[in-house]
Design a protein that fits this description.
6 helices
Length: 139
């Protein structure tokens, strides 16, 4: 292997680990929501958001289905953009009491995660993704 091949392998591996780490928080949260739907719906209603049942279903879809798509790198840019938007919306919808230090931390955690996801939007899923596999197969 030459230096360029080693560098490409490293970049591909880092991109894959990055996708996995970003997706993990959503996947775990989505699984948690599936195990306690009433609590999640109640929390959404207590935050004053409309249609808490619909919000619950949307959150589970994003956190389970889209996180899984991000892990494997399927439609990576689109998926990362959707999860980034979800992160910003949840920051403002659930963590906007910035006078509360816990809420302040969660707000900016969500914003930082959105920033990491926007890096995926910009650069794609990397060489070890379904998207890259499909592109190599197509041409």
């Amino acid at each position: 292997m030459n230096a360029q091949t080693n560098q490409n392998t490293t970049i591909a591996s880092v991109a894959t680990v990055g996708r996995l780490l970003l997706a993990a928080i959503f996947l775990l949260s989505g699984i948690s929501k599936l195990s306690a739907p009433a609590g999640t719906i109640g929390y959404t209603a207590s935050a004053g958001l409309p249609f808490p049942e619909v919000a619950y279903a949307g959150a589970v879809f994003i956190e389970v289905v889209l996180a899984a798509a991000l892990i494997v790198g399927f439609q990576t840019r689109l998926v990362a953009a959707a999860i980034a938007a979800f992160s910003v919306v949840t920051a403002f919808g659930f963590h906007f009491n910035l006078a509360d230090q816990n809420q302040f931390i969660h707000f900016f955690k969500n914003i930082a995660i959105a920033g990491g996801l926007l890096q995926i939007v910009a650069f794609g899923g990397g060489a070890l993704s379904v998207d890259a596999f499909r592109a190599r197969k197509a041409g």
